[in-house]
Amino acid sequence: MAPRDANWIDGLRGIASFMVVSGHLCTAFVPWLHSPAPDPKAAPHLFQLPFFRLVVGGRAAVALFFLITGYVNSIGPIAKARAGNTDAAFHGIARSALARSGRLILPTMTATFLTWFMANTNAYHMTKHVDSTWIRQGWHRQEPTLWMALKSLFKAEVQTWTIGWDEYDGTQWTLHLFLEGSMLVYTTMFATVMVRPKARFLVYAVLYLYFWQLGEGLAIGALKGLNIVFGMFVAELHNHYKDSATSVLPTPVPALMIVLGMFMSGYPQDAQQNAWWSHRMQIFMHQITVEKSDARRYWDHLGASTVLLGIFFSRNARRVLTSPIFNFVGRVSFPVYLMHNTLIKSVLTWMIYLPSAMNPPRNEKGEQMDLQRGSTVHIFIAIIVFYYVLYRLAALWIQYLEPIFAKMVNAATSWAYGAGSPAANSDPMLRNGVIKDHKTVLPA
């Protein structure tokens, strides 16, 4: 795999992708951990407690992806605008807005094709009979004819970007929101390139308040809008403080921000009333948001944003996130996101349920019952193997498929710009598939 400079934002994206996978594994096998306690009077399990529950919770990770998208896609235009180079800023925005769709859609279409192929070669047959509700809901039948299979593939590829639902992989529901979020960044940057930084801060504040009170579902307000806007705000801070950002605050302050953000990010997904701490958080959030708002998404946003801000001001946190292991998981974060559900429904399901499938349990009437998972040790070993396979395949994806996607996007954008145009010829970095100043940030 080609080397890439270590960047703390890459490491953070890698952590977010790992959290998404672990959250889905929790939903599949131990969904009761999504509540803070079995009931209001029962003692919580270790991984139901604050901080520990982040190991099996992935909701705040989705907020992190939107924050990173807002941060990275705005950092270049802001730098050029502050330097007074508005022409370069407009050029960069136009260039990125055109390329962004391809860099997001092509890999997603490939992942959908792979899971479609798995379903239509009956690789998900066992999924239909397991005792995990979440895995069973991801089952898709093998279409009876090739024509019907091709129609279902076309439908899935289109609906991922229209209604936000892929019937072959439900975890892709966020991807059209990432594309919309990127366009929100480009639109905001386009409108504010020529204004002073103080005016741009005011624009962020107005947008933030708008999305906070919107309250029209998680996609519009607390999940997408607030995180995208706050990401742009942190990018503005980056261009303001530059290399001195890690020395602005006393050392303990960023650490406390990270800890506080982790606590807020641990707001439980289900049954918040089962623990006093989460119930208090629920009541407080409902008091400061509009009626029928999803308090979970607001806490996810506040927690992830506070963590991001703490890391931004922390030299030690940045040093950790630029270590080789975090640099690796960051590089492969997007294919990990795209492939993990497919591998859960196939490789992991096969490993966990194969012993039961070899001798399927039946009731008194002779009807087959749900397949039963193996022992805890069996599941633990299977999950370790699953993670190895997932990250190994993701590394191969980056090595072999990502360059193909880059060439396709570059060819399409070069054609769109036209031969001899400044956009097509003046930027060798674009022709080589690398976007300067602000990397294309994709969900893990």
3D architecture notes:
The protein is an all-alpha fold. The chain has one domain. Helix content is 67%, strand content 0%. The protein contains 17 helices and no strands. α1 packs parallel to α14 and α2 runs parallel beside α6. The chain is globular and about 75 Å long. The C terminus is likely disordered.
Q: Strand percentage, roughly? A: under 5%
Classification by helices and strands: mainly alpha
How confident is the prediction overall: mean pLDDT? 89
β-strand number: 0
Low-confidence stretches: 424-444
Outline, from the CA principal axes?
Answer: globular
Biggest sheet architecture: none
Q: Strand-and-helix sequence, N→C?
A: HHHHHHHHHHHHHHHHH
User: Radius of gyration, Cα only, in angstroms?
Assistant: 23 Å
* Gap from first CA to last CA: 17 Å
Helical fraction:
55-70%
Count of alpha/pi helices: 17
List the domain count as a whole number: 1
Protein name: Acyltransferase 3 domain-containing protein
InterPro entries: Acyl_transf_3_dom, Acyltransferase_3
Keywords: Membrane, Transmembrane, Transmembrane helix
Pfam families: Acyl_transf_3
